[in-house]
Amino acid sequence: MIIAIDGPAASGKGTLAKRLAAHYGLPHLDTGLLYRAVGKAVLDQGGEPADPVAAAAAAQMLDLAQIDEMALKADLYGNAASVVGAIPAVREALLAFQRRFAATPGGAVLDGRDIGTVIAPEAEVKIFVTASPEARADRRLKELVGRGEPADAATVLADIRKRDARDAERTVAPFRPADDAHLLDTTHLAIEPAVRAALDIVEAFRAGRGRG
User: Fold this and answer.
1) CA 122 → CA 102, 118, 133, 158, distances in Å?
2) Which of 82, 116, 162, 170 has the smallest set of CB atoms within 10 Å of its CB?
3) 3-state DSSP assignment of residue 112
4) Burial class (CB in 10 A: 0-12, 13-18, 19+), 49
């Protein structure tokens, strides 16, 4: 069973993906970390994430064993991920790895922005997690403050809106829900109700196929 979870920044897709993976005993891949790692690599080398040559080179040299999830949580790398993610050569370099992961025997859970549309269009369960920009900005602000990072509410909201626009307008794999995705709006949902809603979607699928 492949579970594809897509959604914008701070929608809750990562948390839901981790919880579903743990519940069903499936491996989980946060594909956004791959793009964050590419963005960080470019920045660490003194380059610009929008530079297609530098970004493509970083993607081709990406060492998955060296990815530090906590270090990549900074908003700086989230914004860089959105920029490098619009570069065709970067997406191509990371495509094969993501598809291999999706093909893990027994199934997998992947979250990102093009899982249900590009990476695993054959996924049995597709969930598109969304929330209002204001709700997502509030969550991101609390996350930043919780990590002791300087944060301003207006700036965080502006960054969220800018990233949404950049993801939706990119020419390669523009960010959109798959036609057969289940929409899950978490604007007014705390974590546990959101997890239950996601589990209900998966269980409806399993019941339909005889829980095989």
Assistant:
1) 10, 9, 29, 35
2) 162
3) strand
4) buried
Chain-centroid distance of CA 190 in Å reads: 19
Spell out the domains of the chain, with CATH numbers in brackets.
2-208 (3.40.50.300)
What's the start-to-end Cα distance of the chain, in Å? 9
Distance of CA 11 to the CA centre of its chain: 10
How is residue 119 annotated by DSSP?
I
Residue 29 CA to chain centroid, in angstroms? 9
Dist. CA 54–CA 193, nearest whole Å: 42
pLDDT band at 169 (very low <50, low <70, confident <90, very high): confident
The tokens describing 10, both together, are 């701070």
Please give the structure tokens belonging to residue 54. 């530098």
Task: Give the pLDDT mean for 106-128.
Answer: 96
Using an 8 Å Cβ cutoff, are 160 and 136 in contact? yes
Contact 152, 67 (CB under 8 A): no
Indicate the burial class of 105 (C-beta count within 10 angstroms; 0-12, 13-18, 19 or more): exposed
Residue 211 has pLDDT above 80, yes or no: no
Q: Which of 93, 97, 78, 104 is nearest to 11 (CA)?
A: 78
